[in-house]
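Late entry, written up from scratch paper. The run itself happened at the end of the previous shift, but nothing got recorded in the book at the time, so transcribing now.
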Amino acid sequence: MKFSPYENFVLRSRLSPEAAADKLEKAVVTFGSGRSSAFSSDPNRPFRGTVSGTDFKITRIIGYRNSFAPVITGTLSGYPGTELDIRMRMHTGVLIFCCIWMGAIGLSAILAATGFYNTANAAVPFPMLPICLFMLVAAYVMATAGFKYESRKSKNLLKALLEAEIL
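Output as recorded:
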């Protein structure tokens, strides 16, 4: 879906599966390899994670903090070349936090719509419903925009690295 923090796509490369796996492995810093900083930038190794055989789970190394950056998982399969079935999603912890956060705001919006926050003592009623709806939209836009910004960069890096095209 275009406006959700989730992407599923296929890359097709002319490289053999072995060559594609080798290139991907050389571009990934494995956990515990001595380069522990998530903020260091080696242009030859732009990803951090694991590559094992035909499966991989990586994230792009960035020089700043973006909690919405995608976790990229995928598999390589033979073809007259290589096909990579790739799935990008938010980190599970961030996704759980966003669900709880947006759920609490949604509950507040429902309570505001039913008049729960209106008190007889208030001289001017507090406009809780518009504030809750604005917060819901802002949370969604912030999560989706942060994810899409990073996923576009990661997708372009993978395409260039593996000399691939998106199907």
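The first helix runs from residue 17 to 26.
(Scratch paper discarded after transcription.)
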